Amino acid sequence: MSSIPSVQKVSLFRENGGPEVLRYEEDFPVPKIGATDLLIKNKFAGINFIEVYFRKGIYPSEKPYLLGREAVGVIVAKGDRVEKYNIGDKVAYLSGSTFAQYTKFPQDGNLIKLPENITVEKEKTIAGSLVQGLTALTFVEEAYNVQKGDFILLYAAAGGAGLIFDQLLKKKGARTIAVASSDEKLQLAKEYGAEFVINSSKEDIVQRVKEITGGKGVDAAFDSIGKDTFETTLEAVKRKGTIVSFGNASGPIPPFPINRLSAKNLKILRPQLFGYLAEPGEWDHYSSELVRLIDSGELKINISKVYPLKDYKQATEDLESRKTVGKLVLEIPE
């Protein structure tokens, strides 16, 4: 391991707050690996909104908190008892602490081995699709098993996850009602598979949902917004419908009495991706299906911008101000 430096460049925060607490540090220790660990040198890492929840303190975290959820890189060192992987293997994986030049990773963790001759563009695509692609894939199968003809309400329909949901829902034969804050975003959602659109900045969501569904409401809603949309979603879902709540973009949903679901016999769940990938067979199934969909061209990942690691603060400001569409990715310095 003589060629591995002792310090590295990272993006982190040491206290909770707004984007101003983010720090780019150039002398953060490179993690030491054990007998069953890999050391991965990262090349690209995807940016996900969940980092905002940790930074703001909505989700608790230890400090300093090294950001990141997903990455593509190459194995540069391995422990004595690692047999499945070799130094030089190109890999994609889910892990914390990927906004860094190096990440320590267990050999039995969720990891995909990539072809040696993979292109840089494909590396960016996969780095930017793991969390959101696997979220969409698992949620439309397991959180709510979408059926042909179902009316589905989808918020943030032109974001990184939204554009993937648009495509997968269309593939399942659903009738997607896309919600976004501008006509430009809604046009993009339509291009990616949404059938109906609602501009949340100038239209009444519930009224439009009722018009589109003949007064019944939607079979299910995928709501990543949280506090600001919860009451709307409760109204928009039909009798025996399902609410899949999976984000806090506007803040956490306040506590509510569970008997509010009784009026329409509603189901509500709060899934998280790793709950669907806990067993090796689940990871193998969904990760191979994601790679297959991308390779075949059936699933298009819109990487709208790549920022250098040192500019993560700017990237998250752009993301949080709702200026962006598609997926944002960080390029990790050599």
TrEMBL record:
Keyword NADP: yes
Residue ranges of every copy of the Enoyl reductase (ER) domain listed in the record: 17-330
GO cellular component term of the entry, any: cytosol
Record InterPro entries: ADH-like_C, ADH-like_N, ER, GroES-like_sf, NAD(P)-bd_dom_sf, QOR-like, Quin_OxRdtase/zeta-crystal_CS
Keywords: NADP, Oxidoreductase
Top-rank taxon, per record: Eukaryota
Matches recorded under SMART domains: PKS_ER
GO terms of molecular function: mRNA 3'-UTR AU-rich region binding; NADPH binding; quinone reductase (NADPH) activity; zinc ion binding
Pfam families: ADH_N, ADH_zinc_N
PANTHER family in the cross-refs: QUINONE OXIDOREDUCTASE PIG3-RELATED, QUINONE OXIDOREDUCTASE-RELATED
Name of the protein: Probable quinone oxidoreductase
Species this protein is from: Kluyveromyces dobzhanskii CBS 2104
